[in-house]
Automatic annotation (TrEMBL):
Origin: domain of life: Bacteria
Protein name: Dihydrofolate reductase family protein
InterPro entries named among the record's database cross-references: DHFR-like_dom_sf, RibDG_C, Riboflavin_Biosynth_HTPR
Listed PANTHER family: 2,5-DIAMINO-6-RIBOSYLAMINO-4(3H)-PYRIMIDINONE 5'-PHOSPHATE REDUCTASE (PTHR38011:SF11), DIHYDROFOLATE REDUCTASE FAMILY PROTEIN (AFU_ORTHOLOGUE AFUA_8G06820) (PTHR38011)
Any Pfam family: RibD_C
Gene3D superfamilies, sorted: Dihydrofolate Reductase, subunit A
Residues annotated as domain Bacterial bifunctional deaminase-reductase C-terminal: 3-184
Length: 194
C-alpha cells in the first residue's frame, strides 16, 4: 500500500505561504548543502525547471511517483507556461472544482470525492504519493496523511497560510528522521501513529 506524505516547506511558526498563499520568500534561503540534500534525497520534488538547473533531468523518482496538488498550488506555474511541473513522476493530479479540462495530458484532474480517490491511489502499486500543497488540501486529507516531511526555514512570518486548517485535534506522530543544515533549515520526518 502506498503512503501519502505531506512534504512541505514552512516557516518556524508554521506558515507555508504569505496570507495570499505566495511562498516565493522560501527561495531566498537555499544554501548549497540544503539544496544538495533535497536533490539527493527527494529529487522528484524539484520541478522541471529546477531539475534542469541542478542536472537532475534524468534522475528517477526515489520516494514518490505521484504528486497531488491543489489548484492554487498548481496555478502559479501554469501562469508561467509550466503545464506539467512534475512530468518526471508517473502521476500528476490537481484537485479542483473550477478547472473543467486539464491544461496538459500528463496532468489529471480530481473534482469529486477526494478522500475516496486518494484511498484508491494509495491501494495501487508504486512509490509514495506526495501531497504537494496546499493548506486546504491538507485539511481535507488530514486523516489520510501517513507521513509528514517538514522542511523548516529560518523565518518567522507572524501570519500567513498555515500548514493546515484542520482545527484543533491532537494527532500523535513519531519522529523518524531529522537533519539540520548550516543555513538554518531543518528537515523533520514524522510517521502518523495510528
Amino acid at each position: 500500500m502506498r503512503t501519502l506524505t505531506y512534504f512541505v516547506a514552512t516557516t518556524v511558526d508554521g506558515f507555508i505561504g504569505a496570507p495570499d498563499g505566495d511562498g516565493d520568500f522560501f527561495y531566498g534561503s537555499l544554501d548549497p548543502e540544503f539544496v544538495g540534500y533535497l536533490a539527493e534525497e527527494y529529487p522528484e520534488t524539484i520541478a522541471a525547471a529546477g531539475r534542469a538547473h541542478l542536472g537532475l533531468s534524468e534522475a528517477p523518482p526515489k520516494r514518490f511517483d505521484a504528486v497531488l496538488m491543489g489548484r492554487r498550488t498548481y496555478e502559479p506555474g501554469l501562469k508561467e507556461g509550466m503545464t506539467s511541473p512534475y512530468g518526471h513522476v508517473r502521476e500528476q493530479y490537481v484537485v479542483s472544482r473550477s478547472l473543467t479540462a486539464s491544461p496538459d495530458p500528463q496532468v489529471r484532474l480530481i473534482s469529486g470525492d477526494l478522500v475516496a480517490r486518494v484511498r484508491e491511489l494509495k491501494a495501487r502499486d508504486g512509490l509514495g504519493i506526495w501531497l504537494c500543497g496546499g493548506a486546504d488540501l491538507a485539511t481535507q486529507l488530514i486523516d489520510e496523511i501517513d507521513e509528514f516531511v517538514v522542511k523548516t526555514y529560518p523565518f518567522f512570518a507572524g501570519t500567513g497560510m498555515p500548514m493546515s486548517r484542520a482545527g484543533f485535534g491532537v494527532r500523535p506522530l513519531e519522529l523518524t528522521g531529522f537533519r539540520a543544515f548550516g543555513g538554518g533549515q531543518t528537515v523533520g520526518s514524522y510517521a502518523v501513529k495510528r
